[in-house]
């Protein structure tokens, strides 16, 4: 690490490399901030994404490392925000810096060779790699709101086109630029997905409870009352199904029969999906309670958030990190496979928070997904925008429709 720091800080052409690195990271991240602030344009997203990958293929080694570090910051500066609620607020900055170094290392295989075709291959290979089981840096994602497709073959065509362009620039042979141009044309997304919504009125509730207030005992009754009012409001508005956010009931709901009985009564008038906790046999689960006509089904979360709900490290390190930073509470138990269920005669697949951005949920190509999240952990930040872009990515890739309810920001239908 010391050698890397010395190499990055050596003064030879440092300003030039910093500028190139910033341009690369900026163009690689532009689509997120454009979407977040509501001025996303396909043409700009397309151009900037191509520039970013072209730069990664052609940068010198130090500029690549600096660009990787900046990409980690631009995409994930907010990761440490959740540590505030684990009573280790001082970790916010170190975690952000740490994610910068994770993605500096992530892009470091590009340094092995300056051959443009090798680098194109590495950029393709990185699309399969998830550091610490964390997959939110999806290499194809910069193309989600562009003219280009997000399938693997389209990503491959883009990389080969950019590598060929770089090669021809080096050879100073202008006659052969037609080939990379043709490859880019074949990478354009000409498809027009037609997705049929279910013949149901589904309300995705968005609440706004601060994370620092969510689990305080004095706020429990007001939160329960708010949830019941939201359900009744959906009934009054003639919805068929109401979806409430992840852990919208901040308790082990199966230990509170009076609340559960009230929900069962309401479920005769409307289908209900509500997030809460569940425990059995001294095991703890993050789940959704699905209620219809007085019946209750439990849909357990299958994929946990790395370092939030479990620690993806060897056991010795995992136990230390869990005890030191998470008060020994970050390991939940999971389901073995995604839960599907029928509600009002329509089949849905369950997804909770991080699961909505994981391919495992989509492997059986579900038509409809009901999902919920609690994005208050990372407010204020771009987190909910990154999450929504990833959900758009998977909905497009697998031809799915997602009904998403959140606490904080991000509720709606994604298709």
Textual characterization of the structure:
There is one protein chain. It is built from 13 helices and 11 strands. It is an alpha/beta fold and 415 residues long. The model has no long low-confidence stretch (mean pLDDT 90).
Largest sheet: 6 strands, mixed
Strand elements, count: 11
What is the percent of helical residues? 40-55%
- Structural class, please? alpha/beta
Morphology: globular
> Kindly, what is the distance between the CA atoms of the first and last residues, rounded to a whole number of angstroms?
43 Å
* Overall tally of domains: 2
Can you give keywords for this protein?
Nitrilase/N-carbamoyl-D-aminoacid amidohydrolase; 5-stranded mixed sheet; 415 residues; 2 domains; alpha/beta; globular
Summary of the model, kept short:
The longest helix has 23 residues, at 14-36. The chain has helices at residues 2-9, 14-36, 42-58, 61-76, 92-106, 116-125, 152-171, 178-187, 211-214, 220-236, 257-266, 315-325, 383-398; strands at residues 202-204, 206-207, 241-243, 271-280, 283-292, 295-300, 340-343, 346-352, 368-374, 401-407, 412-414.
Task: Break the fold down into its secondary structure elements and pairings.
Elements (H helix, E strand, L loop, with lengths): L1 H8 L4 H23 L5 H17 L2 H16 L15 H15 L9 H10 L26 H20 L6 H10 L14 E3 L1 E2 L3 H4 L5 H17 L4 E3 L13 H10 L4 E10 L2 E10 L2 E6 L14 H11 L14 E4 L2 E7 L15 E7 L8 H16 L2 E7 L4 E3 L1
Parallel strand pairs: 1-3, 2-10, 3-4, 8-9, 9-10
Antiparallel strand pairs: 4-5, 5-6, 7-8, 10-11
Helix pairs in contact: 2-3, 2-4, 3-6, 3-7, 4-5, 6-7, 7-8
């Amino acid at each position: 690490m010391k050698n890397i720091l010395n190499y990055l800080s050596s003064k030879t052409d440092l300003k030039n490399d910093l500028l190139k690195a910033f341009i690369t990271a900026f163009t690689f991240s532009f689509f997120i901030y454009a979407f977040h602030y509501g001025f996303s344009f396909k043409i700009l997203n397309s151009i900037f994404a191509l520039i970013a990958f072209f730069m990664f293929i052609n940068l010198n080694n130090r500029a690549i490392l600096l660009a990787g570090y900046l990409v980690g910051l631009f995409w994930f500066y907010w990761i440490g925000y959740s540590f505030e609620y684990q009573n280790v607020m001082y970790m916010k900055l170190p975690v952000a810096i740490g994610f910068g170094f994770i993605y500096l290392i992530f892009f470091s295989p590009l340094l092995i060779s300056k051959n443009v075709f090798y680098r194109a291959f590495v950029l393709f290979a990185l699309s399969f790699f998830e550091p610490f089981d964390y997959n939110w840096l999806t290499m194809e994602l910069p193309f989600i709101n562009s003219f280009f497709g997000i399938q693997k073959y389209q990503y491959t065509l883009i990389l080969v086109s950019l590598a060929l362009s770089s090669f021809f620039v080096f050879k100073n042979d202008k006659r052969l630029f037609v080939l990379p141009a043709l490859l880019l044309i074949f990478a354009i997304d000409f498809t027009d997905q037609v997705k049929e919504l279910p013949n149901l009125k589904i309300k995705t509730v968005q609440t706004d409870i601060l994370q620092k207030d969510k689990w305080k005992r004095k706020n429990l009754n007001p939160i329960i009352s708010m949830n019941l009012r939201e359900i009744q409001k959906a009934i009054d508005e003639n919805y068929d199904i109401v979806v409430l956010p992840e852990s919208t009931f901040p308790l082990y709901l199966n230990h509170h029969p009076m609340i559960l009985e009230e929900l069962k009564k309401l479920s005769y008038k409307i289908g209900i999906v509500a997030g809460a906790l569940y425990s059995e046999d001294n095991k703890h689960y993050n789940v959704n309670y699905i209620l219809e006509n007085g019946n209750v089904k439990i849909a357990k979360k299958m994929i946990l958030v790395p370092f939030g709900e479990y620690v993806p490290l060897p056991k010795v390190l995992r136990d230390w990190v869990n005890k030191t930073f998470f008060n020994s509470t970050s390991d939940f138990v999971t389901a073995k496979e995604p839960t599907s269920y029928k509600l009002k005669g329509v089949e849905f697949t369950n997804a909770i928070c991080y699961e909505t951005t994981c391919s495992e949920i989509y492997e059986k190509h579900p038509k409809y997904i009901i999902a919920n999240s609690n994005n208050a952990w990372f407010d204020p930040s771009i987190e909910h925008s990154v999450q929504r872009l990833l959900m758009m990515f998977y909905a497009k890739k697998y031809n799915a429709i997602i009904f998403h309810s959140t606490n904080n920001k991000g509720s709606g239908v994604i298709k």
